[in-house]
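Help! Submission page says 'invalid entity' but I think these are all valid:
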Amino acid sequence: MTVVATPADLADRIGHILAEHQGTDGACLLVLQAIQRAFGYVPAAALEPVAKALSLSHADVYGVLTFYHDLRRAPPGRHVVRVCQAEACQAMGARGLTEQLARRFDVALGDTTKDGAVTLEPVYCLGNCALSPAVTVDGALYGRATEFLVLERLGAVR
Amino acid sequence: MKSATFFVSGDSASVSVGADDLVRAIAAEAKRRGIEARIVRTGSRGLYFLEPMFEVETDEGRMGFRPSGTMAECVTEMFDSDISPKARTCLGLMDDLPWLRRQERLTFERCGIIDPRSVGDYRFHGGFLGLERALGLTPEEIVAMVTDSGLRGRGGAGFPAGVKWNTVLGAPGDVKYICCNADEGDSGTFADRMLMEGDPFLLIEGMTIAALATGAAKGFLYIRSEYPAAIAMMRHAIDAARAGGWLGVDIRGSGKAFDIEVREGAGAYICGEETAMLESLEGKRGMVRAKPPLPALEGLFGKPTVVNNVLTLAAVPLILSRGAAYYRDLGMGRSRGTQPFQLAGCVRNGGLVEKAFGITLRTLVEDFGGGTATGRPIKAVQVGGPLGGYIPEELLDLPADYEALAEAGFMLGHGGLVVFDDRVDMLAQARFAMEFCAHESCGKCTPCRIGAVRGVEVIDRIAAGAEPAKNLALLEDLCTLMTDGSLCAMGGLTPMPVRSALRHFPDDFRRSAAAAE
């Protein structure tokens, strides 16, 4: 979910998130995760108020933001398809499935289609290794996944 | 028939192949027949190869059914047969399934049976007996029981749990922490997830006993973000346990306090490394710390900290309730008790098998697993996640035991077995090991940060047939450097899958070179 926010709205909601985490030990990652839940990504404008509120440097916060694969610095597509690239899924054809989906959406793994409809992302293990290959479509987990299943799910949610 | 009780797994893997649709099909057909259906959402039995499936309560026990056609057809047939084995889709009594009967389910004894959202159901099935016992013991007595049980850390390193707890118990300071590592990032493993979704109070009980044993008042449960259902279930269970007096300021009137906070990971594999996890819990980049100091002495926020894996802590309640000897009498050598093994990848019968240590890999993969999913020959089994070795088919008679595997150049890790059929290209798998390390390295130490990138490049040159002998020697040299020079297991063990591929599947490295010529 991506929310387009005005600067005032952004400041207001980030202020609210920071207030919620006041007094929490080691809050930086928690705050960035909460901001992403609210906006779908972490807007650049969020760094300054977060750093200030947590008594951290801008670089500290930026360092956390760029370390974790989950945290986004740009909005994702309207739908996010994640395809597991790890060994158990490889053993069941995940590489081929990834190529099929990349071709179908005309997008490289890790990118968003030009029309902003779909982001195709790698993920390293969804814990569904006995039902490989595994994917998520907008957060919902699927096992024994095929190109058809992914397209069907996207059709159902579009 | 006026009413019937059904059990359908609500485990995220079961749901990922249609368990929710099955619930709807049962409810609809029962309604049409005027039968009152009580549908309990349990955790998973670990019979993923049979999913989606459901169970019905009968006088003899729970009867299993597995749709072969549509779900509605299966449900209709089940009612028409009067819930009996006459139905084509009936699996028989669950307790009679050889796949389950041949296991030694201790940690997972309740998983798939109980309603994971109910404290009452947990209690009814023997839950909290270990904690009740622990409340009457001194910290030293609890630590002694865990030490005597021979329990070793299930995260991969196999360090004796009692020794770690004793260090924290003896560490000076008023503030201590229990940190449970549920950052189960290894491909081919899902036991932590299954347990958290299917029997969450067991983990709460184990963490609370660890707190009583070491004098900690606060626990953190670090769960990876890829497990949203486990996060939700654990948060629910923690609230329910607190409401029932099993957590909080005065646990069951004992005057002792302990509480647990769930923290969500953010997609970094390295945070499964204990010191990186501590950094992440402190809200920072998940950079590995140099040891010493040991986390047991200077861990979370610099305080003495127990860091244990989910399965380690989940084994503790049973040790307390049934005694150290009960647990210690299972297993082989210095590997005591049971290990939840996870059969994954290209395997016909994928799922969770809990057995005492010492079972051979072949029994797991062939007898339980039924061979490959494709029916083709097994080429390799990767044991212990992305940092574990690729074991060739001819070595599958090795026993699953920490020392026996280490001696043969492999490791048990978190007990995941990923099966590959004969179509796998081991050069590609070796390349992936390096690529994964480059992707997930925290970047603190050079052998891992740079070595993994160089590793990919060298393997690409071998694949392209460029001076293969020289580049193979270079790869060996790089593996030695990464093994000896890396700060943690990420860089230190990435050479294990690479070297096992080189040693046991040399043809795959020659073939690529030959094809390029």
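Support: the input was valid. A stray whitespace character was the problem, and the output above is from the cleaned input. Chain A has two domains: 7-67, 79-154.
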